[in-house]
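Exercise (ungraded).
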Amino acid sequence: MKIAVLGTGPVGRTLGSKFTALGHTVAMGSRDAANPTAAEWVVSAGAKARAASFSGAAEGSDVIVNATAGASSLLALNACGARNLAGKVLIDVANALDFSAGFPPSLSVLNTDSLAESIQRVFPDAMVVKTLNTMAAPVMVDPQLVAGGDHDVFLAGNDDDAKAVVVGLLQEIGWQPGHIRDLGGLDGARGMEMYLPLWLRLMGNLGHASFNFRVVS
Amino acid sequence: MKIAVLGTGPVGRTLGSKFTALGHTVAMGSRDAANPTAAEWVVSAGAKARAASFSGAAEGSDVIVNATAGASSLLALNACGARNLAGKVLIDVANALDFSAGFPPSLSVLNTDSLAESIQRVFPDAMVVKTLNTMAAPVMVDPQLVAGGDHDVFLAGNDDDAKAVVVGLLQEIGWQPGHIRDLGGLDGARGMEMYLPLWLRLMGNLGHASFNFRVVS
């Protein structure tokens, strides 16, 4: 697949490298096609990787991954251009963290809304699927890193075909089917995003980010 | 110990019965000392149980458990009287669920605040400890009900002695020390309370409430 990864931070770079390692073609999008972090990433990620502007990355890609900071996700997606998102799977892995009052961050959208739903409203022709936002980047791309892979990833979205594409990608990454929990429609993203404060607290409690949670019943 | 359980709902009755079974004396507090649900509970819970008004329950108790609906918790605690809460361990197991727009509920306090912190601000002389709000009542009192007890309970509070009392009670109930996760100060309650939307979604997804989550690392 041709995947656009928006954002040059640790999440974007980690996901981008994993997708190229799996054989996909990845365009890393940022405000500036000559972004030095993206250029450096291209060198490390090899022949299937390229850097581009947001719109240059989104155009011609089959799947778009929003790995930008939540506070600037709508700006980045606007820069992609609605026509470059229309009809495509838009995987939202971002969290709307507000660091304006320091650490811990608060959430800038929550409760009766979510970042994922905000994105879906602005880009009704994209097929938004929320996933992977509930863990650190190294765990996203290597479930085996934690408890032999015995922990869970969630997804939520309004389009079943789009979710099937995402489930396929998650399985390629190494997520076991029994640990991929479909929470239904995109409003399921509210709970996934509102889990972040507990995740951040657990990270402080444990002293590291190599953890996840497993639903047991 | 002498324990006041505020609230006659499933959580209050379940916790009250467990505490009496463990040998504690329990006063179930409600607006009306003659509350028929409380009276019925007293019959089922036996000689160590009694029904009382909120203030009648709190007065003379060593530990107060807030098992009221989050929307009416401050009213109930006000009815207890600040002097009956002062210097006591106040275990807050409630969630500030707002059902005014139907199901799923939203939260009426969150993000940079929590119900537990609201309670602590209004009753600064109580020692508020948040715990057990992240699971259904049957799981609270019987961790073995789920995955042989291999899952986690959180607590948060500003007073270490109060937290030690709560840890002791959790262990009496059957929670294994390694599964009791102290998240630090009472602001840790934010994450514990904001987890509720995900919990509710998982309940819908699983079709039952006999589940919990386990942190794996």
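Further reading is listed at the end of the chapter. For now, observe: Residues 167 and 180 of chain B are 7 Å apart (CA to CA). The two ends of chain B are 36 Å apart (CA to CA).
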